[in-house]
Write a structure and sequence with these properties.
The two termini are 32 Å apart. This protein has one domain: Beta Barrel (Porin), CATH 2.40.160. The strands form 2 sheets. It has a 10-stranded antiparallel barrel with strand order 3-4-5-6-7-8-9-10-11-12. 18% of the residues lie in helices and 48% in strands. It is α+β, with helices and mostly antiparallel strands. The protein has 3 helices and 12 strands, in the order H-H-H-E-E-E-E-E-E-E-E-E-E-E-E.
């Protein structure tokens, strides 16, 4: 019982709760809409080269592109003929097999456990009575090796002295892949786009990393990060949480840190999820 009480107190110590409105959401939105002018200088050069030089340059370019594509492909997706863990099967839900978390290592002669899965989680994120919000995530897993993921953040801030309020909507739309798929550990990446609504209505490129470690008593620990930029300003999201799994459901407790332009937002989170 003492541990249950101490954990929320520890989180409160790590992420102090502000009792004063800072107008951070308005500051974030203002900075995201400001663009710096860029002056472009044009220049022209002329050169003559022989056809043989052109052929050598083309060959070199083709080799460089092939080497780059091969290196990136191996880094992102691995080599299926060499890395046996890439063949591990997705389970119906974590701990469906008592010896595995998300992925199951099929024994010889056994068929695949599960292929398609739909994961949904929702978290209440809280900093103070003046600043809080919600984080909804949906992930469709059509195969063992890839998933389509969408994250939706809705933040609210209240300025009690001025009697005003503001809100901000943040989205991530990404392709996700678990690069390492072991029975009790997953490590993966995401690649896609971020989008800010709330009158800004601008998108940016996004990439990220995530990992989850599964203990033997239906408890797992998850960490993830997404980096992005919109109008030259950072739009980043970091999260960490502990999950307690019960069949196809789970409860979570953790933290989230958002950086939207200059302001940083630190939240305590409490949520739940389900696997279909």
């Amino acid at each position: 019982m003492k541990k249950v009480v101490l954990l929320p107190l520890l989180l409160l110590c790590i992420f102090p709760i502000s009792v004063q409105a800072q107008n951070d959401l308005n500051k974030s939105k203002k900075e995201l809409t400001e663009k710096e002018g860029v002056n472009y200088k044009s220049s022209s050069t002329s050169s003559q080269s022989s056809s043989s030089d052109d052929d050598e340059d083309n060959i070199f370019t083709e080799l460089a592109v092939e080497a780059f594509v091969y290196t990136v492909g191996v880094t992102l997706f691995g080599i299926y003929d060499v890395e046996d863990h890439l063949h591990n099967d997705l389970t119906k839900y974590p701990y469906h097999d008592a010896e595995a978390g998300n992925y199951y290592n099929p024994k010889f002669g056994e068929e695949s456990v599960y292929v398609f899965r739909f994961d949904v989680k929702d978290k209440f994120i809280y900093k103070s009575n003046d600043l809080f919000g919600n984080h909804l995530e949906a992930k469709i897993r059509p195969a063992n090796f890839i998933a389509l993921q969408a994250d939706y953040y809705q933040l609210y801030e209240f300025q009690k002295v001025a009697g005003t309020s503001s809100n901000l909507s943040l989205f991530y739309f990404t392709i996700a892949c678990d690069r390492i798929r072991l029975e009790r550990f997953n490590l993966g990446w995401t690649l896609g786009a971020s989008y800010i609504g709330s009158g800004i209505n601008t998108a940016g490129f996004s990439y990220g990393l995530n990992a989850e470690f599964f203990l033997k008593k239906n408890i797992s620990f998850l960490a993830g990060a997404k980096w992005s930029a919109i109008n030259g300003e950072p739009v980043n999201a970091f999260e960490g949480e502990a999950r307690f799994h019960k069949k196809s459901h789970f409860l979570s407790l953790g933290f989230e840190r958002l950086k939207i332009a200059t302001p940083n937002y630190n939240f305590i989170t409490l949520g739940a999820g389900i696997y279909f």
